[in-house]
Write a structure and sequence with these properties.
The chain is α/β, with parallel strands linked by helices. It has helices spanning 30-45, 87-97, 113-120, 147-151, 156-165, 171-176, 189-201, 205-218, 223-238, 241-252; strands spanning 6-11, 14-19, 51-56, 61-63, 102-106, 109-111, 123-127, 131-133, 169-170, 182-184.
Length: 261
């Protein structure tokens, strides 16, 4: 599935979703967000897909956030009362409930909504020339819709500083504050992403799917609630075909043959 603005490709175990608007620095509008959401749904339904990678076309921008060009389709700061739900929020929610691992391949500037996408993904690999920022305050706005995914990742003091000053994080700072998992030079970006895809693809898709479900559900629970859910889900995971195969492979000293069930 492709549109002019978003490309969706699966190669082996990876489905790559690419924002294809380099002339607009891969900015978001409603069409782009809806096509990314559709790409995520397609990847989740594909049993051959084990990992979803999100990136932007070119090497200058991962995603420059909402398209603020005058007259841009789907103005990012206007909400139609007849159509509630901001497209950026819908995209972050789709990433939040996705049961397949997501990796942000941060090939360039990740600004505004782009920073939100990076934080909404499970893992992130960033090129050393890239920056992650929230410059909305510089044009008299505040990044309301990206607060939820970003506050789950960044320390409060640093995040508020970014919001109040508009000063972006360098790649080194993004790594220091755990916004990304790895930083590489531009030439090494794909190799690092491929390494993570291979490592994840070698594990049980069933365990990962149920594990992501449990992790995300626990995020907004009290500690006792988290423990009760964990106690409920652990036997469920242990009873899957993949768990039985994993135990057998361990005893027989061989690689497991995962069924995904």
């Amino acid at each position: 599935m492709d549109s002019e603005a978003v490309l969706v490709r699966r190669e082996a175990n990876e489905t790559r979703i690419t924002i294809n608007r380099p002339d607009r620095r891969n900015a978001l509008n409603r069409e782009v967000a809806e096509q990314i959401i559709a790409g995520i749904a397609q990847a989740e339904a594909d049993p051959e897909c084990r990992v979803i990678v999100l990136t932007g076309a070119g090497d200058q921008a991962f995603c420059a956030g909402g398209d603020i060009k005058a007259g841009a389709d789907g103005g990012p700061f206007i909400l139609d009362p007849a159509q509630p739900g901001h497209f950026a929020g819908q995209l972050f929610e789709a990433l939040d409930v996705c049961r397949k691992p997501t990796i942000a391949r941060v090939n360039g500037a990740a600004v505004g909504g782009g920073a939100g996408i990076v934080c909404a993904c499970d893992l992130a690999v960033m090129a050393d020339h890239a920056r992650i920022g929230t410059p909305e305050v510089k044009i008299g706005l505040f990044p309301m819709t990206i607060i939820p995914p970003m506050m789950r990742v960044l320390p409060r003091r640093k995040l508020v500083e970014m919001f109040l000053t508009g000063v972006p994080l360098t790649a080194e700072e993004a790594l220091r504050y755990n916004v990304v998992n790895y930083v590489t030079d531009a030439a090494g970006l794909d190799a690092k992403v491929a390494e993570l895809v291979a490592l994840i693809s070698a594990q049980s898709p069933t365990a990962i799917r149920l594990g992501k479900y449990g992790y995300q559900a626990m995020a907004d629970m009290t500690f006792p609630q988290q423990m009760r859910l964990g106690e409920t889900l652990l036997p469920r995971v242990a009873q899957t075909e993949d768990a039985r195969e994993g135990f057998a492979a361990f005893i027989e000293k061989r690689k497991p043959n995962w069924t995904g069930r």
